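Usage example:
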Amino acid sequence: MTAGSVAAQGLVRLPVWRARIVLAALVAAFAALLVRAVYLQAVKTDFLQEKGDARYSRVLEMPATRGRITDRHGEALAVSTPVKSIWAIPSDVQLKPTQRKSLARLLGMGTRELERKLAEPEHDFVYLKRQLAPETAEAIAKLALAGIYEQREYRRYYPAGEVTAHLLGFTDVEDVGQEGLELAYEQSLGGRRGSRRVIKDRLGHIVEDVQSIRAAQDGVDLTLSIDSKIQSVAFAALKAAVERHRAKAGALVALNVQTGEVLALANVPSFNPNNRANLTGAELRNRVITDLFEPGSTLKPFTIALALESGKVTPQTTIATAPGRMTLAHYTIRDVHPAAALTVTQVLQKSSNVGAAKLALAMPREALWDFYHRLGFGTAPQLGFPGAAAGRLRAYRSWRPIEQATMAYGHGISLSLIQLARAYTIFALDGELAPLTLVKSELAARGEKLVSAETARAVRAMLEAAVQPGGTGPRARIVGWRVAGKTGTAHKQENGGYAADKYIASFVGLAPVSAPRVIIGVMIDEPAGGYYGGSVAAPVFAEVMQATLRLLGVPHDAPLEPLERPGALDEPREST
Amino acid sequence: MAKLNLLLLAVLVACALGLVTSQHKARKLFSALEREHEHARELDVEYGRLQLEASTWGQHSRVARIAAGTLGLRIPDARRVRLLARDNAQ
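Running the assembly step on the lines above writes:
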């Protein structure tokens, strides 16, 4: 085509550069778009994604519910239920005087206190009141105040109150275990909070689950070995005894012999775990597990068991105990009922210190130490309970003869009540020492065999004699079942010596003798007036043991005759 | 050729509508599921409260007090209790 023909067709030939400019402009525009796209897609993508997500995607906290604690029959002992906490952003709060008054009233505080809490503009988060009842929180929500919000929290309730306070412990305001079993089983009870990412619509409904960041895991329920009926009876009996004898404190533990389960564990003084204002240290102490005491005569059966086991004596062997005292290195061991000679059985029955000391001195100290050690003295029991005391059992190399003698009747050695009660399982299980548990278990406990069945039965028979008239603990007897046990009356240790007028009365025993099922240990701290284990602790044992055997449905093994009351001659006097 | 295109267009529109519907249904069902989960949590809380209540009312000490005080019940004399042994011991 020629220029002439173009012109002839009426077309104007434009300069080529104009087309090139347009093309270049278009290319440049596309290039700019491309660069921008790359910039947004590759460089700023994280930021933009985040902004986009912030419009509709939310990360939700998934709270985990704390596991419940129940007794062996499923009775609830500790349950967490939701409560509301009220919080505020002080700078956003604008209250009219009437609103302020009604809010303060609902929160249960003075208007001045409320103003003080709200007068902290540097804080943008202030708790006004934590753990309110749901109804109160609802009333506050109805006021519809700006800058005041509510938050769901959990609070733990203990329906049995002071009866199980020491055993269960308690949780703090965040529902985290602080004491007792709540602390011991915190990991499994507490569960694990989770979180998940969801898409919410304009109205706040969750429309899609995008991803589960971490699944929430609810706490596992804990079933204890405790029988709440026995626990309740034990606590009531112990409390009554502590009040009757104006004692400083008391402790009681009941064990199921066959399974090694703790059926009841009570402490006085106690506290209300649902309202822990004004708590003192004395009320918080779990005396059964964490407190040590010198057991006194309740330790004698072990000395005698070892003597029998060594084959040196039989229950009928006579020991010269005249004149009822014995002096060793400036220290005199005394008997309350001096006798010229006592058989081994009578040593236990009359709780003769001289007899027990002579038996202990006849044995090598290594053997004594080894036996005590294997009984678990000086080793913290494997209960998983925080603060379980190990007790004090000194190395035998440092024992002097006088210490070896006093240890025979429970002085110069200290243990917790639960250690002592556990040691008695060797007499109930024909020589086996059962491991203990606070969690329900149906399995028969298999323990280490420490003495032969013959020895265990022989000591059991002696322990039964000790609660017959003529022994130190006749008030431990109950109608319908044969019981066996040992009293203890120990001087309290104070400032490195022994207090002359402060005692710890104790009793540990088992029943029924024909086929032992239950061991109960009782300890009363500083009873006023009568202070003997046989008159202070033994009646508590009898009351709780009778109720326990009835509740467990244990067959009778004794005639159902009313017990003859112990006479004046059978006063449970003893000196340790 | 045009016929095939029209057919494909119709299929495409149908698929698109189907996707929208199923997405909508999925979201509806999901929110229903959420509601049920919430309901389950509420029931669990309620169960906990009822357990608490049952345990509080059923406290052994309270039962014993009412039995002895209001109803005048007492523990039978041991001589009037007969224990039956289970025939087939476990």
